[in-house]
Design a protein that fits this description.
Elements (H helix, E strand, L loop, with lengths): L7 E2 L5 E3 L2 E2 H8 L3 E5 H18 L3 E6 L6 H9 L3 E4 L2 H9 L7 E3 L6 H10 L3 E4 L2 H14 L3 E8 L21 E2 L4 H9 L5 E7 L10 H21 L5 E3 L17 H19 L5 E4 L3 H4 L3 E13 L3 E6 L8 H5 L5 E3 L9 E6 L8 E8 L7 E5 L19 E6 L2 E6 L4 H4 L10 H5 L1
Parallel strand pairs: 4-20, 5-6, 5-13, 6-7, 7-8, 8-9, 9-10, 9-11, 11-12, 12-13, 15-17
Antiparallel strand pairs: 1-2, 2-3, 4-14, 14-15, 14-19, 16-19, 17-18, 20-21
Helix pairs in contact: 2-9, 5-6, 8-9
Length: 442
């Protein structure tokens, strides 16, 4: 089995994360439990930043926090000198609660509301990534009525189709996101904004998809945006000081995945931009990127307790755990693959092939098919690896299941950063029917 970051096995045969025994964590916090290896998050953040620094390129590395949002992870991102990518008023509110530096917050989204845009002005954030023409008109109205300035990037679709799942491909022309780079929409957008008295266009943004392993797609996207920036200089006498090339860098979920080191993606982008700026005598833009999954994905591990099991002779053996699609929808949503281990018996042979099933009332609630674990027994702790991205942020209360607790581990220490939901939390927003005395008596 492949262990990640600071994961190890102690003399009790237990999985440890950040020097902390995961079995002890389950005794203290219960299961399901999402555990983050914070040292691995920091290592990845440092790798992205250092690659730009070594090349002498001015850059911002923004944590794409839709992967996992909480006050605590925003505080770690702030500590590491990262910027922050938010996509809703809720994420911006969380960032404000974490006292994240407002000038380093970038607000994304394809359908920001007027209220959300006002909130961004209230907080005086660093940049809004504009996605459509309605948003342009709302930004004009808000900035002019307030007489307040705002920096923006224009999100464009460069026509690059990355090799990834259809649900997480976003850079192709047929996308709900951004202005098309080839049909004139991007040109129209920049003309509407770049001479505005309160709105400063910093440049362009693209995001071509998620869980991408090859670098060609990133090179093509960088070339497409640089060509358009050079064209805008000629047509409009406008030079973009910022080029945001998004994220989407892949991680290893299973042994079949072959991710590159974070520096490899950055170096390819750097190469394209440096080459084209030199060739066309174009001022070197500040490069922004937005890693999310590649910072938190394999830093997260979910711990479950096994319960019932069922053998279907000649077909499969089901082993049920106390979570499932309510805390990790990805396998059911787009057939995401994971690996697992028996955290309380790591030294036992992991030779039994089982299907790890969740407890939700859905036949499709299967976390892993063909998982190799130690011979299962009731009460075992199952660790599902690489669950740090798009699990808690996409979790639900389906079947009225409470969301799990979250713990950060580092240097032998652990800290609860999100408490487990209670049944009281589940009904907190419910309002009973208001009945008259006559209705009650009848």
């Amino acid at each position: 089995m492949h262990l990640y970051g600071t994961q190890s096995v102690n003399n009790l045969g237990h999985l440890t994360i950040g020097g902390v025994d995961t079995v002890d964590l389950t005794h203290m916090y219960g299961t399901p439990l999402l555990v983050y290896d914070i040292a691995l998050f920091k290592e990845r953040a440092t790798a992205f930043k250092e690659t730009f620094a070594k090349a002498g390129i001015k850059a911002q590395v923004a944590y794409a926090s839709k992967a996992f949002s909480s006050i605590a992870i925003y505080e770690v991102a702030k500590e590491m000198g990262l910027s922050l990518d938010v996509v809703s008023g809720g994420e911006l509110y969380t960032a404000a609660a974490a006292d994240f530096p407002r000038e380093k917050i970038h607000f994304h989204g394809n359908n920001k509301s007027y209220t959300e845009l006002q909130f961004a002005f209230d907080e005086k954030i660093g940049c809004i990534v504009v996605d459509n023409f309605l948003e342009i008109e709302m930004l004009k109205e808000i900035s002019e009525s307030r007489k307040e300035k705002m920096n923006v990037l224009l999100r464009v679709t460069p026509g690059v189709e990355a090799s990834t799942h259809d649900y997480i491909t976003t850079g192709q022309e047929d996308s709900k996101f951004g202005f098309d780079l080839k049909n004139g929409q991007a040109d129209d957008a920049v003309l509407k904004l770049y001479n505005h008295p309160y709105i400063t266009v910093l440049g362009m943004h693209c995001h071509i998809g998620s869980q991408i392993f090859e670098t060609d797609a990133f090179r093509f996207a960088a070339e497409a945006l640089m060509e358009k920036m050079i064209e805008w200089r000629e047509k409009f006498k406008f030079i973009c000081p910022v080029l945001n090339l998004g994220g989407g860098f892949g991680i290893r979920y299973t042994e079949e995945d072959k991710p590159l080191h974070p520096s490899a993606y950055v170096e390819e982008m750097e190469d394209v931009v440096l080459s084209m700026t030199r060739k066309h005598n174009y001022p070197m833009p500040e490069i922004w990127i937005e890693p999310g999954r590649s910072l938190v994905g394999d830093a997260g591990t979910t711990l479950y307790t096994t319960g019932s099991s069922k053998e279907v002779p000649g077909v499969r053996t089901y082993v049920a755990v106390d979570g499932g699609m309510s805390d990790n929808i990805r396998p059911a949503l787009y057939e995401a693959k994971y690996t697992a281990a028996t955290a309380n018996r790591m030294l036992d042979p992991h030779a039994d092939i089982v299907t790890i099933a969740g407890k939700c009332c859905e036949s499709g609630d299967k976390l892993i098919e063909d998982a190799y674990i130690a011979e299962p027994a009731e009460g075992d702790i199952i660790a599902v690896f690489c669950t740090g991205a798009y699990t808690y942020s996409m979790a639900s209360n389906y079947n009225r299941l409470p969301k799990p607790a979250i713990v950060f581990c580092e240097n032998g220490q652990h800290q609860l950063v999100v408490r487990r939901e209670t049944y009281e939390d589940i009904i907190r927003l419910d309002i009973p029917l208001q009945r008259t005395e006559q209705e009650i008596s009848s």
